[in-house]
Amino acid sequence: MIVRVKILFLLGILAAAALEAGSASHQEAHVGISEQSRDSRNTISEKRVVIRVIDGDTIVVSPNEKVRLIGVDTPETTHPKKAVECFGKDAKEFTWSMVERRSVRLVLDESNAARNHKDRYGRTLAYVYLDDGTMLNAELIRRGYAYAYTRFPFRHVVEFRQLERIARSQSVGLWASCRLNSSHATRAASSEISQH
């Protein structure tokens, strides 16, 4: 009887240790991942390889799906009716350096579910996460490569507006290099107005 109790006790300890080890390795997998990524773990997400960068806010993932980054607007580089805008090439090069030929995690935002997570051009609307947990959408704004695009609702709108305010106040990226032309001024004013 005492041997059976000891065996059950040891089995219980081993089971608890296995659960704890599994939990620890699960936690270690998320060390260094941003808060945005932790918030998105329970949403629809998928790993894909980036095969091309169209411009700073639009990429193509395998097999051949265009993805538009939610909440971000970079200066134009490929618009058929607009000239290349100030800092547009820089934004495209930054995006390329971060994701080209790399595996990324696409996370959809429930605010776009009614539209099947597509914009009016048929591009998939997503947050793009790098392997280290960095959200590319937020990083573009934080480093001054993009504006917060707040015309439509999305989960991280408050954070993106704050990142833009900080980049503007610190004259980071396009905020230091570009004179605001009419399209830039409209985007910046739109972002400011939608904050109130």
Give an account of the 3D structure.
With about 200 residues, the protein is of the alpha+beta class. The chain has one domain (about 35-195): OB fold (Dihydrolipoamide Acetyltransferase, E2P) (Beta Barrel), CATH 2.40.50. The chain is about 40% helix and about 20% strand. The chain contains seven helices and seven strands, in the order ααββββαββαβααα. It has helices at about 1-30, 35-40, 90-100, 135-140, 155-170, 175, 180-195; strands at about 45-55, 60, 65-70, 70-75, 105, 125-130, 145-150. Strands 1-2-3-6-5 form a five-stranded mixed β-barrel. Strands 4-7 form a two-stranded antiparallel sheet. The longest helix is centred in the first third of the chain and has 27 residues, at about 1-30. It starts with a helix and ends with a helix. Residues about 15-40, about 180-185 and about 190-195 have low confidence and may be disordered.
Taken together, the total number of domains comes to 1
Helix tally? 7
Shape: globular
Care to count the β-strands?
7
Oligomer category: single chain
What name does the CATH topology carry?
OB fold (Dihydrolipoamide Acetyltransferase, E2P)
Percent of residues in helices comes to: 40-55%
How far apart are the first and last residues' alpha carbons, in Å?
A: 72 Å
Structure at a glance:
The chain is 41% helix and 18% strand. It is an alpha+beta fold.
